[in-house]
Amino acid sequence: MSPDVPRRSDATRAAILRAARARFAADGYQRATIRAIAADAAIDPSMVMRYYGSKAGLFAAAVDVDLRLPDVGGIPPERLGAELVRHFLRRWEDSAAEDDALLTLLRSAATDEDAAQRLRGVFREQVQPVALRLAGGDPDKAGRRAGLVATQLLGLALCRHILRLPPVAALSAETIVEEIGPTVQRYLTGAR
To answer: How many domains does the chain have?
Structure first.
């Protein structure tokens, strides 16, 4: 088999993950079933179990989130807030929102404590180190800053992509960057 041709198992795994993200997003973790996810992926439920072992294992794989944050060292300090907002907007809007693990996790976290814990972990492990670097190594200050950044970015995702709040959903990406960027900047740098 040519290395350029994906293996059938890779395609099956990808189909399962797409179906799982959509199902978890629509039904939440508790109501989503392996049988429904398998039907959505047009495969036998035993294949889901073969690849992921359990519903919990499948959920963990479906919401494995890498924020792919930019290197803040390469961004002028006065542009950090705007660039972070722009990064998240591109991440959500340049890919299929229904296939986005972060949005799936956000939807599920509202009703499931395990999902909420996983979402807290994403921000603790990926956003807090950025804030720590900007807070001069002070972990308390970094935790507070990362948490406040999360309020803006997750609130934006909730209002724009999940609730589709008309005033927010209708804004251009650049308007959102202009409006929210300064707030995120203040949270990141502690400037008043």
So the answer is: 2
**Full domain range(s) for residue 51:** 8-62
Same-domain status, 109 and 47: no
Rg of the chain over all Cα atoms, to the nearest angstrom: 18
pLDDT in tens, the chain (192 residues): 445 445 678 899 999 999 998 898 788 888 899 999 999 999 999 999 999 999 989 998 988 888 888 888 889 888 999 999 999 998 888 765 445 788 888 888 888 888 889 889 888 888 888 888 888 888 888 889 889 999 999 999 999 988 999 999 999 999 999 999 999 999 988 776
Cβ–Cβ < 8 Å for 181, 149: no
Q: pTM for the whole thing?
A: 0.78
Count helices and strands in the chain by DSSP H and E runs: 11, 0
**Cα angle 183-187-189, degrees, rounded to a multiple of 5:** 115
| CATH value at residue 156 | 1.10.357
